[in-house]
Amino acid sequence: MHNILVLGATSTVATSLSRRYLEKGSRFYFLARSADKLASRVAEFSTQLLGSEAVDFTAFDDTIRAIDRAYEVAGWFDLIVVAHGYLGDQLESERNFVEALAQISINFSSVVAQLIAVTRHLESNPGRRAQIAVITSVAADRGRPRNYTYGAAKAGLNTYLQGLRSRMWGRAWVTTIKLGPVDTPMSASHEKNALFISSEEAARQIERAITKKRAEVYVPRRFSLVMRVVRALPEPIFQRIPSLSGR
């Protein structure tokens, strides 16, 4: 049995992942930004829920205190999942710093605050081990006009997680989940194609990556090859491919 702390517990992928662990008898503590959405998750997971709290993740001190309260209740978490994000409006972020800052704060700064709080608890219990799984995005691999503010925040997070993985080596395993196109409310406005997978399939692949203690993994898995090609494209070629360089 695992105690699992889920940050961003109301996201579609986080919910699907939690359901998989629910079947294994895990217990949960949920933190999320939306009190209304959190209420429905609390009802669903009530029999195995240690606690829950709605918190504004960009209120960093409040977030840290909420995590501290979660540890007070649970004592220990074997797995910490960070699954929240904010795609935002790319065009608005180009002309309005408030929108750009919101994307950076939610996708990067708030996660750093969460991880600082979590690792403080891990380091205060050196004899115990835990896993941390953080959902980032394939958008971080190369800046594209359609989402480069969001992608830049996720790229910063990827680099942070690389350093955290080395720092916590031997005490906590850190897995970076580079999430590709998943059919969720966040991607509702996107035209769906064969590259999209369901949140249930994404959760299955994420659970497998956590179980196997992968350092970095692409979900869907096939995006490992897709993004390798995208990263390697010379700039003149990249700029001639509308699906990459267009809006």
In CATH, the homologous superfamily goes by the name NAD(P)-binding Rossmann-like Domain
How many distinct domains?
Answer: 1
CATH architecture assignment: 3-Layer(aba) Sandwich
Tally of alpha and pi helices: 10
Structure description:
The mean pLDDT is 93. With 247 residues, this protein is α/β, with parallel strands linked by helices. The chain starts with a strand and ends with a helix. It has one domain: NAD(P)-binding Rossmann-like Domain (Rossmann fold), CATH 3.40.50. The chain contains ten helices and seven strands. Helix 3 packs parallel to helix 5 and helix 5 runs parallel beside helix 6 (148-167). Strands 3-2-1-4-5-6-7 form a seven-stranded parallel sheet, sandwiched between helices. It is globular. Strand 5 (130-137), helix 6 (148-167) and strand 6 (172-179) form a beta-alpha-beta unit. The chain has helices spanning 12-23, 35-44, 60-74, 90-95, 97-123, 148-167, 199-211, 223-232, 235-238, 242-245; strands spanning 3-7, 27-32, 49-54, 79-82, 130-137, 172-179, 216-219.
